[in-house]
Amino acid sequence: xxxxxxxxxxxxxxxxxxxxxxxxxxxxxxxxxxxxxxxxxxxxxxxxxxxxxxxxxxxxxxxxxxxxxxxxxxxxxxxxxxxxxxxxxxxxxxxxxxxxxxxxxxxxxxxxxxxxxxxxxxxxxxxxxxxxxxxxxxxxxxxxxxxxxxxxxxxxxxxxxxxxxxxxxxxxxxxxxxxxxxxxxxxxxxxxxxxxxxxxxxxxxxxxxxxxxxxxxxxxxxxxxxxxxxxxxxxxxxxxxxxxxxxxxxxxxxxxxxxxxxxxxxxxxxxxxxxxxxxxxxxxxxxxxxxxxxxxxxxxxxxxxxxxxxxxxxxxxxxx
Length: 320
Prior knowledge:
This protein has 320 residues and is mainly beta. Helices cover 5% and strands 51% of the residues.
């Protein structure tokens, strides 16, 4: 009779096993359709479900959750079969809010681009489905960004973080004089940043930065100033006026025979000059007097120079 008992147990086992079926779950996504994804939170009738476990034949409620994707919640019917029940679904990624964090390398500060788009659509205040996008960032005076980025699925906002570098700026120097130079000498302009110095001409390209420039020319006061070059699209014109230095006056007066004469007085615009007087270059009314000689009254033009201003005049005897 023992063999009847074993047959009975075997039949009971078959009957009980027929009420269950192995379940296998497989998830893909619309973000990457080429490979399956792992979903950690899968529930069957509100209880965690392990892939490959046996479940009872009948109706069930299945839920699947993964950060960055829309949740799945649906009813399924598991019918009898000797093959595993395959539960296969595609998760749809959720749109992500996009945040911009754009800085400039100079000046070091956060800036707001004039154009910030993904596939041509403005980013500010928008949400985007995970995927690949063409990112474009533009701001006047800075090198634009144009590249492909990929936004993966996630719950938190996606941050576009970039450092924009400024374009080189064209410097145009407009150097003028309060009084023209006497000779054909040219000014010397030196533009300096940190310990690096460069001699420059009237037009050049420089990177936006803090500079010091020095302008020297014989006969003029030396100019030394700080210069802040900010990012820009148009040329930066620097206007600088050179101021002439005062000049020493040397008077060489002779008579009709070419002999040097010690004059009694010389005036420029009514002011008496002596051997120590320095005059500012410009236009003056000059008067020279010597007893017994005809006075000289004439206009003189003193140009800028680092040399003495020499006056050559010839006195004529007064007619009797």
